[in-house]
Design a protein that fits this description.
By secondary structure, the protein is α/β, with parallel strands linked by helices. The protein is built from 19 helices and 9 strands. It starts with a helix and ends with a helix. The structure holds zinc ion (ZN).
Amino acid sequence: MERRNLLKEKDVLRHVYHKHITPQTCDQMLQSNHRQNRRNIISTRNLNIYLINMLWMRESSLTQRFLLWILLPAVVSSSSDNFQKALELMEEAPLIDGHNDLPLQLRILYQTRLSEANLRNLTKTKTNIKKLKDGHVGAQFWSAYIMCNAQNQDAVRLTLEQIDLIKRMCESYEEFQLVTSSEGLTQSDKIACLIGIEGGHSIDSSLGALRMFYDLGVRYMGLTHTCNTPWAETSSVGVHNFYPRNISLTDFGKEFVKKNERLGMIIDLSHTSASTARAVLEISEAPVIFSHSSAFGVCPHHRNVPDDILHSLKKNKGLVMINFHSEFVACNKTATVASVADHFDYIKKIAGAELIGIGGDYDGADGFPEGLEDVSKYPVLIQELLNRSWNEEELKGVLRTNFLRVFKNIEKVRNNSASLKPSEVEIPTKEVENPCRLNLKQYGKSLRNKTPSLYTSKLYFSLILFIVLVCIW
Ligand SMILES: [Zn+2]
């Protein structure tokens, strides 16, 4: 009997979500629904599942079952209509996602040997080309991320290798196209590839390195990952012990922010401390983004954005690209589509829908909500937001146009600054505290003060000898 009921539940679930739900996902959802039972969060999608559960549970009374038989078709049909509507909307406005760590997985799993991986059907990752297409992803910021442990060691080389990997990846698959401008992004009919750097340790406190990364196609720059840099503070406490005295943004950090903007590089504040984010927002002339963070007001995690920063970001016309990782969404390991949608509702209420984008963080974290397990599931979230009465304009903004606004705006700041000469500011050596750094100033000083070489001495000696001999003669 139990087994027959379970089979019926599976049939109904698969019917509700058409073929977009795999048998495995179906099993996971059912297990979870039985666990959650009557304490489901009230949203249309969860209501469906709740109703289905009630329908097949032996303890439901006859009256309950009768009422449910009447309610279920209406709820199921409205939800399924919205799924179709979500797909149509995403066809029209394919998603620009702010953060994906597939390149890191390719380093870990294949040591960056792209020839050994088939990106069309990778199975060990949450991202592959088929899933990106199913998820209606029109553009993806690939993260050229390298761990903080490489700070002051080989972070720059490793970041360059990650950029090389992303470029090779995007050039060797016809489904991808590398783009570096808002115009390129708008015109691309493939999955547009964009590059972002996650953490200031990747540039080794060098504005020259920053400019070269821009020339290579990088279009956003995260100020920190989980470690302080010499000039900016991370939100992660106690993970690394770099520059512990740094508690916000230093003068060089401020210079760095201004130079990023004039270059056309978007500043990414995900992973920075709230104090650093506030300092950046005070001086920024261009919109900034949080490429993969959620709302602190819903889940008070240090990776999320507090309300006062949301207000400042509204003035800045910036963007929070909401992160799906369960721990940032629900502050624990289990989350649902509804938990993610709560962050959308919250930020919309605090600062407006035009402040919102999506930065799923797939392949960069362990643990994603039920129903949003990989990059093919984005339409399920859009369906949930439609169920919550988000209108098409707001959703197109979330999917695409809000990011395009930020991108176009920073390009305008870059164009207006075109006549300015590149900055030659260097970080003070004592702030970097890195003995491995070659001190060329010292080298130049020693060259200037050098005593005459042996060759010069011999020349002087020969000259004097010649003069003496001429005088005697
Ligand atoms: Zn991250």
